[in-house]
TrEMBL record:
This is RNA polymerase-associated protein RapA. One of its GO terms (molecular function) is helicase activity. The gene is rapA. Residues 449-596 form the Helicase C-terminal domain. The lineage of its organism: Bacteria, Pseudomonadati, Pseudomonadota, Gammaproteobacteria, Cellvibrionales. GO terms for biological process: regulation of DNA-templated transcription.
Length: 920
């Protein structure tokens, strides 16, 4: 080993010293100065833990003056290396190794291997496995769909896939109550964020749902939203507090009467805005509300917009049009035209039925081939007509898995205190309201009945809903303090945290409350399908509110029939309204999406009967029942039927669910996690079938491992177990723990250089094999989704002494079982002897990998142009007949095609890992 003053060497015993320079040479000692740490060390010339630093052509180097070069050639002068390369001005510069920056980091596999910095073979195998798994995810047709802690329901998976893959989706999610619109929105957001199509998201919900959204997004989708309220806004010291976080959750009410906050919100540049309970936005053609105007302004500055409502028809045709107008003002610009179009929906539905029956309609739209298969024609009709692209609505009639509803009527005598009081209509339905104290509790028969029924049902849980907060508070106090029944109250006077605690107390199976007493706010958004009994202490006058109340229990996931208990005072307005709901609207047995519209039709007649029931009531009930049946039939056969076809395509959904299942049930995830934990020093313990307990240790490779708590974290790989055990993390390839840990592997040098020995029959001892793994490096904005067409594509080569590739003869997994560890002193000695041979084999491996790259890039560009081009042609053809296709979508596809082509052509090879193997 020859040392010359001025040469640059690195210590493979302590890489933290940085790049050293030889400053003094004695017969048996050499002194090295390490400028990066300000230390000088003297070593014995024999056995010094030093390796000469030699950069290669193509390496990036930095000088002490901050000049960065890409090495193009290397020369040697008086024992010192001279590097020639181009700087960022494309000018050629030559520097001596003396000028190199001392803060060098050896990160490329070749640098680390030749300078004696290598890892265990297990780390090398982990790095290769990481590349393979990441490549599979990039190629997966269900990317973005497997990471949510949800049941895989056809209609939810279909909508999430259909909407989540769009550029800046603008849609109205209008599934009926209980079908999971929040989950659909979360799945869409998860996919948009994971793919990079969206980075900044704003979610606006009623104040009562803030904490539920916060918890649901975190628990089900691992999305960490920041909750913004008045207190938080006051604490943030920034010009625009809404720019301080990427994912923001807030109440719509936060901005009412606050023009400065509104301007800040509008200036924050959101990629996606989500508005829940959109039917609450106040709108009229002459006087739109402040909340509606704010969302309208947001819709103009945000690329994506999701509106959620279970009641698109009930709010009225004009109001429904106003919400669609938020999605696309150019498409929905005329209410009159919209009404005219809606009248055509029945025609398209009938046409689809004819095609299904094997008949070719006489009035088939121009441009459709009557010889085409019926399914294809139906798809084209759905694509071209209606609001199906911007409106998704699944109905209970089309989705299985719902329980039966069973009404339990409980007539009670009207007390004298109520009978002789002068009551208006509101007080007739809620007779306790005129009392300023709780004295009504002593004589209202509903109170004693409630105590009795709860004791009869014990230990079964029951949700109690009444219209007003004062009623709810009084009842809960009575049950808790006087009747000895475990109970909790849920009303608008509580903070968000207090409401959530009350709901959690009710949900606790072992030590929780038997009953939760809610005011009307408990009828929206919250899900209590673990309970079977619903007690309606009073009835709302609005059928939509009644449906929302029942929907808290009657939803997917309910395992038993829903028992609806209604106590009422005989001969009162309560009984009249109950009779109308039961026999006229059939609201207790069946969900009715047009309930409010029917109520509006009979409002005057119903109100008159509520004030004084007379002989005309039977006619009212009969007329309501007849009208309700006709309306349900119209919705079923017309618009709803057409929308259902476009809102869930079972064959497509089943294929997606099957693909998700295959990715989940592969046996690769758990072994990969265990290898990750071994590499990073995380302890693993068996918990149960498909579940592990992970714990940090004192000898962890890094101080942080994602999502690992100090007390330990329990994880499961099983979806069913994850749905029943919320205390466990549900690990999929898309969980942040895996995503971040995989990034920790690939963003560092872990496992990118290794050395080992092997015994192979037929190969002489001392033969050197060089295993290299290349990937494709395509630097492109995430939102372009180039990896769909050009994934990492790991390319493995195993170069022998003759320059032949033996990778196909000796698979990587087989090689891992055969390779043996080499002690470091021996490995260092080997490296010093074979540097030139390694360089030669590396050049041959790079040449062969480069030869494959051109075909990969050509194929990727062809696939990209075919896929995106076909989608553009489809949308272009549709736009001629369906104005729901936005020009922005076509423009974005043009941009995406051009930009993807540029980035694909500029893609290059990246050496990811290198392993030197010697036969013994």
């Amino acid at each position: 080993m020859e040392y010359i003053v001025g040469q640059r060497w690195v210590s493979h015993a302590d890489a933290q010293l940085g790049l050293g320079v030889i400053v003094e040479i004695e017969p048996r000692r050499v002194t090295v100065n390490f400028p990066a740490v300000g230390e000088e060390r003297t070593y014995a010339t024999d056995g010094a833990p030093l390796t000469r630093l030699r950069f290669q052509e193509g390496d990036h180097i930095s000088t002490v003056n901050g000049v960065e070069l890409v090495v193009s050639s290397i020369a040697e002068q008086h024992g010192l290396l001279l590097y020639t390369g181009t700087d960022h001005h494309d000018e050629e510069v030559t520097v001596s190794e003396l000028e190199l920056d001392a803060f060098v980091q050896l990160t490329t596999p070749q640098q680390r291997l030749l300078n004696g910095h290598f890892d265990r073979n297990a780390a090398f195998a982990l790095r290769v496995a990481t590349l393979e798994h990441l490549n599979q995810q990039q190629c997966s047709p269900v990317q973005g769909l497997i990471g949510s802690r949800t049941s895989l329901l056809e209609h939810q998976v279909y909508i999430a896939n259909e909407v989540g893959q769009r550029f800046a989706p603008r849609v109205l999610l209008a599934d009926e109550v209980g079908l999971g619109k929040t989950i659909e929105a979360g799945m869409i957001l998860h996919q948009q964020l994971l793919s990079g199509r969206a980075k900044r998201v704003l979610v606006m919900v009623p104040e009562s749902l803030l904490h539920q959204w916060l918890v649901e997004m975190l628990r089900r989708f691992n999305l960490h939203f920041s909750l913004f309220d008045s207190e938080r806004l006051a604490e943030i010291d920034a010009d625009n507090p809404f720019e301080s976080e990427q994912l923001v959750l807030c109440s719509t009410d936060l901005f009412i009467g606050q023009p400065e906050r509104q301007q800040q919100l509008l200036a924050a540049e959101w990629d996606m805005v989500v508005v829940d309970e959109a039917h609450h936005l106040h709108w009229s053609e002459q006087d739109p509300g402040e909340d509606y105007l704010l969302v309208e302004a947001l819709s103009k500055v945000s690329a994506g917009l999701l509106l959620l409502t279970a009641t698109p028809e009930q709010i009225g045709q004009a109001s429904h049009f106003a919400r669609l107008r938020l999605l696309d003002a150019s498409r929905f610009h005329s209410l009159e035209q919209f009404v005219e179009e809606e009248q055509q929906y029945r025609r398209w539905s009938d046409m689809a039925l004819q095609l299904e029956a094997g008949e070719i309609p006489d009035d088939l739209p121009e441009g459709l081939d009557p010889e085409a298969p019926a399914e294809q024609l139906i798809e084209q009709i759905l694509d071209r007509h209606g609001t199906g692209r911007v409106l998704f609505r699944n109905t209970r009639a089309a989705i299985t898995g719902f329980p039966l509803r069973k009404l339990q009527r409980h007539p009670l005598p009207t007390p004298d205190e109520y009978r002789f009081a002068s009551l208006d209509l509101q007080s007739s339905l809620h007779p306790e309201l005129p009392y300023i104290d709780d004295s009504w509790l002593s004589f209202d028969p509903r109170v004693k009945w409630l105590e009795s029924i709860l004791k009869q049902l014990r230990p079964a849980k029951a949700l109690v809903i009444c219209a007003h907060a004062d009623t709810a508070v009084a009842l809960e106090h009575y049950l808790h303090l006087r009747a000895g029944i475990r109970s909790a109250a849920f009303y608008e006077g509580l903070s968000i945290i207090e409401r959530d605690r009350a709901a959690a107390y009710f949900a606790d199976e072992i030590n929780g409350a038997q009953t939760l007493v809610c005011s009307e706010i408990g009828s929206e958004g919250r899900n209590f399908q673990f309970a079977q009994h619903l007690i309606l202490f009073d009835l709302p006058l609005n059928p939509d509110l009644l449906e929302q109340r029942i929907g808290r229990l009657d939803r997917i996931g309910q395992q038993q029939d829903v028992q609806i208990h209604v106590p009422y005072l005989e001969g009162s307005a309560q009984e009249t309204l109950l009779d109308w709901y039961e026999h006229g609207l059939d609201a207790f047995s069946n969900s009715c999406s047009a309930g409010y519209m029917i109520f509006e039709q009979f409002r005057d007649r119903l109100l008159a009967q509520l004030e004084q029931r007379g002989a005309e009531f039977e006619d009212l009930v009969s007329d309501t029942a007849e009208f309700t049946q006709a309306t349900r039939r119209e919705l079923r056969e017309g618009r709803d039927r057409l929308l259902e076809r476009n809102s869930c395509k079972p064959a497509v959904a089943q294929a997606l669910i099957q693909e998700i299942g295959q990715r989940e049930n592969s046996e690769a995830l758990q072994p990969y996690l265990e290898a990750l934990c071994d590499a990073f020093g995380v302890d693993q313990e068996y918990h149960s079938e498909g579940a592990l307990i992970l714990r940090p240790t004192e000898h962890m490779l890094t101080g942080h491992f994602p999502y690992l708590r100090e007390e330990g974290t329990t994880v499961t790989f099983n979806r069913d177990k994850a749905l029943s055990r919320e205390d466990m993390l549900f690990l999929t390839w898309e969980h942040p723990m895996l995503v971040e840990a995989m990034d920790m592997v690939l963003s560092t040098e872990l496992g990118n250089a290794a050395i080992g020995t092997i015994k192979l029959k037929g190969i002489a001892p001392g033969t050197m094999l060089l295993e290299s793994v290349f990937t494709i490096n395509c630097v492109a904005p995430r939102e372009l989704q180039v990896e769909r067409f050009l994934p990492l594509s790991p390319t493995r080569l195993l170069i022998d002494a003759r320059g032949k590739d033996l990778a196909h003869l000796v698979p990587h997994e087989r090689l891992n079982t055969l390779v043996q560890h080499v002690k470091k002193p021996v490995a260092l000695a080997i490296i010093k002897q074979v540097q030139e041979e390694v360089d030669a084999k590396m050049l041959e491996a790079t040449r062969q990998a480069q030869a494959r790259l051109d075909d990969i890039l050509s194929s990727a560009e062809k696939t990209m142009r075919e896929t995106l081009g076909a989608e553009r042609e489809r949308l272009q053809a549709l736009r001629a007949v369906n104005p729901a296709i936005r020009q922005e979508e076509l423009d974005h596809l043009d941009y995406q095609i051009d930009e993807c082509a540029v980035h694909i052509r500029h893609a290059s090879l990246q050496l990811q890992a290198l392993r030197l193997i010697l036969t013994t």
